[in-house]
Amino acid sequence: MEQQGDELFSQLHKKVKDGTLDRKKDWRLYQQVLRYARKAPHVTEDQIQLLDKIDHLFYTGWKVPKIPINIGTVIFTLLTVLLEIIYWYIIQNVNNIVVAIILYFVFSIGTMSTSHVVIHWLIGKILGINFRSYFIFKSAMRKAGYFPFTLLGQLPTPGIKYELRSFLRATKWKRTLMLSAPPLLLIGFFAVNYWILIERFGMENTLIVLSGLITLLSYVIATVASYLYGDLAKARMDY
What we know:
Blueprint: H1 2-18, H2 23-39, H3 45-61, E1 66-68, H4 69-92, H5 97-127, E2 131-138, H6 149-152, E3 156-162, H7 164-169, H8 172-185, H9 187-201, H10 206-229, H11 231-236
Antiparallel strand pairs: 1-2, 2-3
Helix pairs in contact: 1-2, 2-3, 4-5, 4-9, 5-8, 5-9, 5-10, 9-10
């Protein structure tokens, strides 16, 4: 495996040196080398620098809206807090329980979307992993191929790009924790919003209980989708 990995590195290095590297044509080769680098017991600093250079070139050429890391962190943190405040205020003033439950799901999905990138950033910074920028794209979760991910995957979604050299220099468990923390922690936003809903309407109503069961089922389905196509799938590349 080590010999094959060195050969793949050589192919990439030659393409970079000759100026023939192409994002579309060489993406598969790059991913092969990256998977090897993440699993290999030892990767040289030159190899890390090569991969980081290619990663930066490919990311720069990716035509999606990008937001500087410091500005994006402030924006998405404030959006998350603002959404939670608005949700709490509206729920206190809504009398129709069906409308309240719909708002519960809408605002929970909204805070989940804005906060998950900030969680990546926070955990990464604590563990020594740096980031290049935030970006807006269509979520890879749409690849799940079933509702509601086919619908949600078409909506503009914030993402965050880590700096590959600091990512590869980090230990395996740090990479895993940074990638997997958001999908495992985001149930907290649903729990907080569900508690706000219960405080307003109580647990006696069947629709409240049903919405809680739907939340748990949705979380399980979302976690499976993440394991197959999302952040948890990226974390699995180390194993």
